[in-house]
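#structure-requests
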Amino acid sequence: MSNFKIVLVAPEIPGNTGSIGRTCVALDLELILIKPLAFDIDEKAVRRAGLDYWKYVNLKIFESWEDFIAKENPSNDQLFLFSRFATKPLFHAELKKDCYLVFGSETKGLDSKIKDQFKNQLVTLPMNSEHIRSLNLANAATAAAYEALRQISFS
């Protein structure tokens, strides 16, 4: 069963969601999508990026961030929200079983209200070049998932 979950808030690019779904299948993780989604979840592009694995994605969909918080009821220390503006690298966070790795949309990131509410839970993946604004969402989620796996499974 899943040791942690990946959460995508208002994802915009079906290929990224499909690729992240594939990572979730590979690691036996739950994928949580929070609306609004910028695409139909049955869209061919999502299935194509997840290849024939999409049917195996352990998927939950919530109507809003508030709906997610109310129904999942995560404690603050279970939430790790990714932002390029965070100062704490993911590698310095203490990831534990049943945590949530939370990512915002590809063009806007997480809403400022969410970041303000959970400012102590913000983490980042290091980028050493000033030429890059951000990492691809699927790449960032996969890197974070494997760091979480390392910390939770091999600690």
